[in-house]
Amino acid sequence: MATEQNDTKARKIQPRTLAMILSIIIPGLGQMYNRRFLKGCIFLIVTISFLVTTWNFIDIGIWGLFTLGTIPREHHSIQLLIQGLISLIVLGFGIAIYIYNIKDARSDAIARELKRPNPTLFQGMRNFYDNGFPYFMILPGLLMLLFIVVVPLLFMLALAFTDYNQYNAPPRNLLNWVGIQNFVDLTKIDIWKNTFLSVFSWTIVWTVVATTLQIVLGLFLALLVNDPRIKFKRAIRTFLILPWAVPAFVSILIFSALFNPTFGAINRDILSQFNVMIPWLSDPFWAKVALIMIQTWLGFPFVFALFTGVLQSVPRDMYEAADVDGGTRWQKLRHITLPHLLFATAPLLIMQYAGNFNNFNIIYLFNEGNPAVRGQNAGGTDILISWVYKLTFESNNYNMAAAITIIMGLIISVFAFFQFRKTASFKEEGRY
Predict the structure, then answer these.
(1) How many CA atoms lie within 13 A of 10 on its CB side?
(2) 142 and 220 part of one domain
(3) CATH code of 364's domain
(4) What's the pTM?
(5) 359 and 273 together in one domain
(6) Are residues 73 and 18 in the same domain?
(7) Rg of the chain over CA atoms, in angstroms?
(8) For the range 186-189, what are the long-range contacts, defined as Cβ-Cβ under 8 Å and sequence gap of 24 or more?
(9) Do the domain assignments include residue 384?
(10) What average pLDDT score do residues 22-49 get?
């Protein structure tokens, strides 16, 4: 009786379930159970090859990721951390193949249950070409993306939760996981809290004021040049786009010399006529004013060219209909021109704000974020990105730099997401 009961239980197990169980135990065994011997051998060979070639690397990598080493001078925490991150990616590929092996065994078992003929090797290769060829072609690019972009990002994220700084650096010392302590220090330790609040507030002011001014100036000039009463439009447009044609770093270095309070032409040749000498580089307020003016000069040509192109696409019929209805210039600007401009350019304008939030070049090339400020470890004109640069390459506070970078990324991501969601161009996408 016991034997008959066991036989009955065995019969109740469906082939698809048995194939999955066999593939879970040994990859490829489920395919062999389904009489797909060649496919089963391929899965088995791939599994064995993967384990033989990567087991030791993954084993050390996962151990190093959790411990960051145990013997100073012998174990290098940074190398172990990077190896651990790469191990996670390699392990992810292995798990993906393992899961695919289980699903494939189940689908083959279902085909057997439905008495569908198994595809031949040629048919299988043809199906792979039709369905999987695009994925196979993007695989090299995906791998490069993982190891060139994703791994450095994960490494930066990991550093934010360690104690990696100039006083605790491998291989002399081992790193330790400190959780969110670095983020707590930004809000509790006076020098970090004061510096972060000062730099963050200036970064917001810099982003909003400088970007808004360049957009307003570009819009004003585009509307002015587009007026039918203006002649020599091509020459004027060419002249206004010239600042965009000159490399930005060249313009910034020239402005740095012009604003020099000692020998700069602005103080020596212009303001001296009114007996005025402004400390452009030594006073934080005037340095910020100079930076905003320079960014307005550098940024308005792109906005001008953008708005000029969009203005050419506004239907003339709309203006003619407004004239017939007695619409004023302000009403036409408010109800026709501006909605059309903002609908077409809103995503790019948002990217202007995001770009200036991380505009490292102008801050560093103009005066390296100086002048110094008492009680802070950042300069008076440093924004978050330039402060992160100094923390990384000058004071070697890698952990705090990584923590600030995460905060910056979250701010930009949240801002861009909500602004894109509110733009009409985003809402209308895919309707036509």
Answers:
(1) 6
(2) no
(3) 1.10.3720.10
(4) 0.82
(5) yes
(6) yes
(7) 32
(8) 186/400, 186/403, 186/404, 186/407
(9) yes
(10) 90
SS3 content of the chain, % helix, strand, coil (to 5): 75, 0, 25
Q: Indicate whether 77 and 197 sit together in one domain.
A: no
Count: domains in the chain: 2
Residue 296 falls inside a structural domain:
yes
77 belongs to a structural domain = yes
Contact in structure between 199 and 378 (CB atoms under 8 Å): yes
Provide the mean pLDDT of the chain.
Answer: 87
Q: Which range marks the domain in which residue 416 is found?
A: 181-427
Residues 390, 378 contacting (CB under 8 angstroms): yes
The letter for the amino acid at 113 is E
**Residue 170 counted as domain residue:** no
Question: Token pair of 296, please?
Answer: 């307005």
Q: Report pLDDT digits (tens) over 70-126.
A: 999 899 999 999 999 999 999 999 999 999 999 988 888 888 888 777 666 677 677
Report residue 210's pLDDT band, with 50, 70 and 90 as the boundaries.
Answer: very high
- Are 153 and 209 part of one and the same domain? no
Regarding whether 188 and 98 lie in a shared domain, the answer is no
At residue 422 the predicted structure's pLDDT band, cuts being 50, 70 and 90, is low
**SS3 assignment, position 369:** coil
Last residue of a domain, one of 100, 128, 159: 159
Any residues with CB less than 8 A from the CB of 310 and at least 6 apart, and which? 340, 341, 344, 345
Collect contacts of 409-418 with beta carbons under 8 A, ≥24 apart.
411/357, 412/354, 412/357, 412/358, 415/353, 415/354, 416/350, 416/351, 416/354
CA–CA distance, 138 with 140 (Å, rounded to integer): 6
CA-CA distances (angstroms) from residue 398 to 112, 190, 390? 58, 19, 10
Beta-carbon contacts of residue 89 (< 8 Å; ≥ 6 apart): 146, 147, 150, 151
Look at residue 11 in the predicted model and tell me its pLDDT: 52
Asked whether 225 and 233 are in contact (CB, 8 A), the reply is yes
